[in-house]
Amino acid sequence: MYELRHLATLAAVADEGSFGRAASRLGYTQSSVSQQIAVLEKIAGGALFDRPGGPKPVRITPLGAVLLEHGRDLLRRADEMRDGIERFRAGDSRIDIGTFQTVSNTLLPRVIGGLRDAHPGCDIRLFEEETDDPDLSHLDLMFFDARTDDDGLKLLDDPYFLVARPGDFEPGPVPLAALDGLPLVAHPAICHQAVVEDFLRARDIRPQFVFRTEGNEALLAMVRAGLGAALMPRLAVLRPDESLALHELAPGLPPREIFLLWQAGRTHSPLAAHAIELALKAAADLS
Predict the structure, then answer these.
(1) Where are the beta strands (DSSP E) in the chain?
(2) Helices (H), 90-156
(3) Residue ranges in the chain modelled with pLDDT below 70
(4) Chain mean position to CA 244
(5) How far apart are CA 100 and CA 231, in angstroms?
(6) Rg of the chain's alpha carbons, rounded to an integer?
(7) How many CA atoms lie within 13 A of 128 on its CB side?
(8) What span, in angstroms and rounded, lies between the C-alpha atoms of 115 and 125?
(9) Residues contacting 229, CB < 8 A, separation 6+
(10) From the centroid of its chain, how far is CA 157?
(11) In the prediction, which pLDDT does 92 show?
(12) pLDDT of residue 78
């Protein structure tokens, strides 16, 4: 079996042309270098160097040249492996993160900015999807708005508001019953939107859904245009302008819970562990 230290000794002797100089370069004794070359010659089945004696340099044999070519390739790949491990431990690696629209606009930029500042060489891959069934099989972390059987932690509660044009409702909380028959623009009835609609139906409150879209900005544009009001979580309207009014509801809707998930039992890379720390801090700041 060829050992890397033996191959490194072979390369040093070939470079230096001398067992003695190779020993000085590697920090070995000359006898240790001779022993390692002898081990390689036994494994290879022939001489690896011609030894003319005296001050003349040793010369690599054709068999030695073949072993040296492949040995240098193995040494190079071993160096790359060590470098990759060191970069991984330092956080300079790859991370795949699943996200959804609201998080992409609020929490995630803070996480990405923190990772980029701390680990400029890291490779960040983002995947955005609105889904009821999260798939973490190819992800290190995933932001999601419901509890699952996967491991993870809760980041924050995201309360709902009634978003309308100024003057459409009296200032202050709006009675939940006022939503019955009210024209609303809304997200598709998946994820937490389905929870909200089930909550209303259980109380015999049936709004008139006049438009559905996944895009938060499209919903707000339709509210501004007067098509209808909207029930939206706070993070989706984090920066309202004068063209919109936000009203609490009485009683309130169940808040959307935002989680950061990962595969059950998964060991985090240093980069993923740092991303979790950053997500917790960003959620605390927004809360």
Answers:
(1) 49-50, 59-60, 94-99, 123-128, 141-144, 151-158, 160-164, 174-175, 183-186, 208-212, 229-233, 245-247, 249-250, 256-262
(2) 101-105, 107-118
(3) 83-84, 86-92, 240
(4) 35
(5) 18
(6) 32
(7) 9
(8) 12
(9) 162, 163, 164, 168, 182, 183, 184, 185, 223
(10) 22
(11) 67
(12) 87
Smallest Cα–Cα separation from 222: which of 213, 176, 188, 100? 213
- pTM of the predicted protein model: 0.70
Those residues with Cβ within 8 angstroms of residue 71's Cβ, 6 or more apart along the chain or in another chain: 2, 7, 10, 11
| Pairing mode, strands 229-233 and 183-186 | parallel
Tokens for 168, please give them. 């459409």
Question: In the numeric block, which tokens belong to residue 191?
Answer: 């994820």
| CA atoms within a 13 Å half-sphere pointing along the CA-CB vector of 227 | 15
2 backbone dihedrals φ, ψ, rounded to 5°: -80, 125
Whole-angstrom distance, CA of residue 182 vs CA of residue 238: 24
Furthest C-alpha separation in the chain: 103
Per DSSP bridges, beta strands 49-50 and 94-99 are: unpaired
- How many residues are there in the chain? 287
Measured CA to CA, the distance from residue 58 to residue 65 in angstroms comes to 13
Contact 47, 61 (CB under 8 A): yes
Q: Which residue has the tokens 């609490």?
A: 248
